[in-house]
What we know:
This is Serine protease. It comes from Aurantiacibacter zhengii. The structure is a single chain. It contains four helices and 18 strands. By secondary structure, the chain is mainly beta. It has one domain: Thrombin, subunit H (Beta Barrel), CATH 2.40.10. A hairpin with a 5-residue loop joins strand 12 (183-189) and strand 13 (195-202).
Amino acid sequence: MLARFTAYIPAMPELDPITRAKLKLYVAVNNLHLTPPEVPESLKRYCRPLAFYNVGSPFELSFSGTCLLVRHRGHNLLLCTRHQLVNAKRRPDEVVIIVEKIDGGSVGINPNQVSQVVLDPSMDLSFEHLADIMLAEYISNPQGRDLAPFFLPLDLMAIRDLRSVPSETFMAIFSIAYPTSDTDYDPKMDADGNLSGLDIVSRWNKLYLKCTEPNEWDRKGLVPLVPACDDDPVLSDPDGISGAPVFFIHRPPRGDAALGFAGIISHANKRGRVNMIEATHIRQAVEKHLD
Length: 291
């Protein structure tokens, strides 16, 4: 369901100095100015379970982890990790995004093109986890349906990442994920006891994180993150958070608060520690895909 917004802040030139100063506490997301706590709620509509269509099965959909839908320079891209497909034993052409039909109901749409990062044979294999990226592209108007509103407008080449922002300016680092344990399946039976349908409810989780030093569990080449606070709740089972995007909010000393993109989660453990493929490697994959 599309996120609901209750306030819109006019363009900066129309504001008086006091209001303009207060605006520094807002973050621009998709042409809206939101308070920092509202940002994850706004972004969750673009973060989804990675879905597959099951041909000829009464269980039409199955999930494997999380994905991000982003519109980069006119291209509608689904971003996730490659191992989400490998673990589920699925092909890239079985990936679907679920959108509402114009005449009611919903439909699953397959990608028009898929790219998977291929390792250079000369590359140090200890960095194989950096190649765990998959991109699926969707044309904007399949069957007359405009898909652009389902993708977050985000210039992946221009947006700040963790490398380009001083750590002391971070206000929050967070991820939006769909753990497998928070997905419920409600089968519908007909009068003869046959399966006639299935309702699926997948719940999102918001994880607040912070950077940390690598340890022996971490994969080489990936960025380690841990819960932002010691008392933050930790997922009892992190299965399903692979592919989850990691965003952050930063505020320079003399600037406005802004949204940044840190990367996507690749691995996680039950202590709340996650490993992230950082944005710089995702940019390389996007450039390769567009080329």
